[in-house]
Amino acid sequence: DVKVTQSSRYLVKRTGEKVFLECVQDMDHENMFWYRQDPGLGLRLIYFSYDVKMKEKGDIPEGYSVSREKKERFSLILESASTNQTSMYLCASSSTGPPQYFGPGTRLTVT
Amino acid sequence: DQQVKQNSPSLSVQEGRISILNCDYTNSMFDYFLWYKKYPAEGPTFLISISSIKDKNEDGRFTVFLNKSAKHLSLHIVPSQPGDSAVYFCAAPSEGGSEKLVFGKGTKLTVNP
Lengths: 111, 113
Description:
The structure holds 2 protein chains of 2 kinds.
Chain A lengths: L3 E3 L3 E4 L5 E7 L5 E8 L3 E10 L2 E4 L6 E7 L2 E6 L8 E8 L6 E2 L3 E5 L1
Chain B lengths: L3 E2 L4 E5 L4 E7 L6 E7 L6 E7 L4 E4 L2 E6 L4 E6 L8 E8 L7 E3 L3 E6 L1
Parallel strand pairs in B: 2-11
Antiparallel strand pairs in B: 1-3, 3-8, 4-5, 4-9, 6-7, 7-8, 9-10, 9-11
């Protein structure tokens, strides 16, 4: 059974905190993605990675950075969390091309 | 400007009937379209796709139709089952590459027993 797992289902952080969202896939996929989902806006791509240490900006990278030190792990970093980053964050992976499998999501609240 | 539009936020149908979910797009350069299904508290799952060289793709109860001249695609579910109740997103790869999808806002389908 293929799996994309995310470290937390729910997270509450304060404004200005550094936040790490972790994602792990067990399918040896090359591509990994971070999306955020907001009501009325659908899913928007933040960053994706096509190989270890390789990354590309998505549509809304501002305020975020990513890290991929190992093939199976892709981290999303909020350097200084702000209230407008309160959202559902979804990680995904694929062997090639667009995302095939998504994780269950992390609902982040920044207060 | 939204490149992929799902104008119906919700749809309700009876079990056994056909569900038709619609999606419009603005960029005629899109050459590939995908549908994802999302249950509450879970991530989306890939459902079905269609290449622009086709006008129909079928997978069991799910069929996607593409009308390039109208820049319109639709997902048909026949017969609809209560387990199909979910949010459905259509998506297309942007000009940034096949990995970079643009998503519609989603349509919430409810299939009533």
